[in-house]
Amino acid sequence: MSHFALSVPDSLFAEVRRLAGQDHTSLNQFIVAAIAEKVSALETARFLAERGQKADWSAYSHALASAADHPARADDELPPHD
């Protein structure tokens, strides 16, 4: 386990403390979870970009071309835009 001193603006720290209390977690646990969420978001974006670069677009086009051309089912349509 590593330790790291962190300087946080007072207003942000007060908000984090309040939210940790609402979440019934310790301040440490709340901050570690927030860091983990940010790391996960950044890694997911990187992972998807890498997967996209490996895509076989000819296979994708072939799969689309071979799919039946049916109108959307009534329960699978987007609602009208206002």
Q: What's the rounded overall pLDDT mean?
A: 91
Instruction: Estimate percent helicity.
Output: 55-70%
Q: First CA to last CA: what distance?
A: 53 Å
Count of distinct strands: 0
Instruction: Quickly count the helices.
Output: 3
Largest sheet: none
Low-confidence stretches: none
Shape descriptor reads elongated
Percent range for β-strand residues: under 5%
| SSE topology string | HHH
Structural class determined from secondary elements: mainly alpha
Using only CA atoms, what is the Rg? 23 Å
Task: Give a brief outline of the structure.
This protein is mainly alpha-helical and 82 residues long.
What attributes characterize this protein structure?
82 residues, mainly alpha, 0% strand, single chain
Structure commentary:
The protein has 82 residues and is mostly helical. The chain has three helices and no strands. It has a domain at 10-65. Helix content is 61%, strand content 0%. It has helices at 10-22, 27-53, 57-66. α1 (10-22) crosses α2 (27-53). It starts with 9 loop residues before the first helix and ends in a 16-residue tail after the last helix.
Task: Outline the secondary-structure elements.
Elements: H1 10-22, H2 27-53, H3 57-66
